[in-house]
Amino acid sequence: MVASDPPRQSRPAVFQFSSLRRRLLLLVALAMAPMVAMTVATGMRERSHAIEAARENLQRLANLAAANEAKSIDGAMQILRDLSSVPMVFQGGAGCSQLMADILSKNSDYVNFGVIEMDGDVSCSAVPSTAPVNLGDRAHFKRAVAERRFIAGNYVFGRVVRKHTINLTYPVLRGGAVAAVLFAAIDLSELDKFVADIELPGGSILWTGDAEGTVISRRPGAASWLGKPIPGALWRTAAARPRPAVLTDSDGIERIYAFARVGGPTLTDYTVMIGVPQDAVVARAQSDQMLAAVGLCATMVFALLAAWFGGDMLIARRVRTLAATANRIASGSLGTRTGMRYGNEEISELARSLDEMAAALEKKESERDGAEALLLAADKRKDEFLAMLAHELRNPLAPISAGAQILKQLHAQDPVVARTANVIVRQTAHMTRLVDDLLDVSRVTRGLVELSREKVDFGRIVNDALEQVGPLIASKQQQLAVELPTQSFCVDGDYKRLVQVVANLLNNAAKYTPEHGRIRTRLAATGARLVLTVADDGIGMAPELITRVFDLFTQAERTSDRSQGGLGLGLALVRTLVQLHGGSVHASSPGLGLGSVFTVELPCVSSGAVSVPERPAGAAGDDGGARLRCLVVDDNEDAAQMLSMYLQAAGHEVVVAHGAAEGLLMARALAPQLCLLDIGLPDYDGNELVARLRKLPETAGATMVAVSGYGRQEDKEVSLAAGFDAYFVKPVDTSVLLALLNRLASMRAAREIDAGARQDAPAT
Length: 764
What we know:
Elements: H1 20-41, H2 43-83, H3 93-105, E1 110-116, E2 122-125, H4 139-147, E3 151-157, E4 164-174, E5 177-187, H5 188-191, E6 205-209, E7 215-219, H6 222-225, H7 232-239, E8 245-248, E9 254-261, E10 271-277, H8 278-309, H9 311-330, H10 346-410, H11 415-445, E11 453-457, H12 458-475, E12 479-483, E13 490-494, H13 495-511, E14 518-526, E15 529-536, H14 543-546, H15 570-580, E16 584-588, E17 596-603, E18 629-633, H16 637-649, E19 653-657, H17 660-670, E20 674-677, H18 686-695, E21 703-708, H19 713-722, E22 726-729, H20 734-760
Parallel strand pairs: 12-14, 18-19, 18-20, 20-21, 21-22
Antiparallel strand pairs: 1-2, 1-5, 3-4, 4-5, 6-7, 6-10, 8-9, 9-10, 11-13, 14-15, 15-17, 16-17
Helix pairs in contact: 1-8, 2-8, 8-9, 9-10, 10-11, 10-16, 11-15, 12-13, 13-15, 17-18
């Protein structure tokens, strides 16, 4: 066996610092020791620091006193400025003197107001004089005329008022020249009251001197000093405008002086000087130093006692409880509380704050969940409302559109009917676009649009958009210039959405360009970016409109000559769709009436295999030579009748039902090859109807087409999953419907030819 090491002897507990109390005691002692040493070692420095602090305070007092006096001078300047706009002042005579007397009676700080003519004569005065008074020799009058600005003059003894004053003069300009000079005389015995709220230590002196060093204010003893020169050493020091300095006054007392100018250079040349006895400052510093030493000792004693007695029970355990509670709250347990009893000390306050914070967070979390649920519910209701609004708007549009198409087919030779039908078709299409934009912008702004990306030629996108907007441009006889490059520029994007972007820009240009106006579309490439520009010479935009033209529901101001409608959604869709494709769009305009320019930038991709979107085939009247049996089910009698008439005009056999149950009966009797079913039926909806029709032997193989006013993507997905082959949104696009009819008719004709060939073939 190997002998084990002898156990180490533990140190006495007094030398161990594992407890918070001992560590706090050690930290307090270590922290206080340098402070004690610094207090002893820096005693003299504290004295100089105290003096410096006193100088700074004294400078602030000087600045405050100067500001108060400047406010008084500025008030006098304002009075004179106001008087300069009163015509009576320059008419002289008793009226002017009476006006000045009234002003003097309301301003007790002044001893006179008046007007000095250019020859120096006082033509108007609040204080009447027994003999003419001429102030042409006064420096303040000469300076006001020469410098053509407000002048605060030096000390004078008033000739008329017989008081110590300063004269404030204000030149009145007429045609660029001085016509007269207004003056106000301030009683210097009243000037001290503007600094009366400045509290000074005993033995302090406050002086105010003019530009020549003459006393215009002094505390104390103003009466015996007014008009006398300021002591030479003090005035020479003030003229240099130094920081606070120590000077010995005539009474043999050393004072710390601070200096401040009364107002800016354009207001006065006066200087405020405040002197405080240096002994008072030093005595206060020594007293503060002694107080600091006593406070330091008391602080050290109390700190050591607090560290010892408050260590474990009062601090450590409670701090650990708070830390554990905070960690649980941070981890997501918002129902956690400290469980501590609250008192009046800091840790209890911290515990209370921590508990209140947890409760507030828990409440806010609950409120946030509730608000989120309300927002989701409101958003769902909004979507349902938009879908229902679109459904209700499309229902009347469907028979209108179908009726217009029938008018075009049956009365193509009648120009009045044909023109009327074209107007109805065009306006119906416009209303349909408004409804589609309303639903599109709702889905786009919520991020519900999924792009079907493919490589497409952007030139083809521009041409297809021009084809859509062409009728509007033609109806306004606008000139359209299209600049497309000879080579293909491809983008990786959703063909239909990009056509929508270009069509919206062209539609916007056509809408806000007057008849016979010009629209220019240009496509080019800059580096790896494709640039599309749509410019017009229409109404243009004000700068404030350019900054928000891509916001929802933003439109230019309506005027009586712009009949094209809109909801302000098209450009908002443009910006969002372009951004989804990784591009940018911006607008510019030289101003109102000068046209607008919209520029779209998109990333280019290398040329190669390009997808060509399918186009609807067929034209009106081209039925492929076969007659189809059609079933139309729609509770809107007008819509059902118009769609039926349209199909009959195209040469097909049609039966109409206005309910799902009635539609089932007619389907059994007719065995239709094409069923056009409304979704919102009164007895049960079209999705259930198509499922039942699929189970009937007469309609199991028929083509099922949903014709609905609901245009949301989710509505389409539900209907297609229920058994429909296609989903048409009201009003039905007749070109797409004709393409479907022609395809079905061609397929039927091909089957009949094939069946006849088999019957004619000889038996082997």
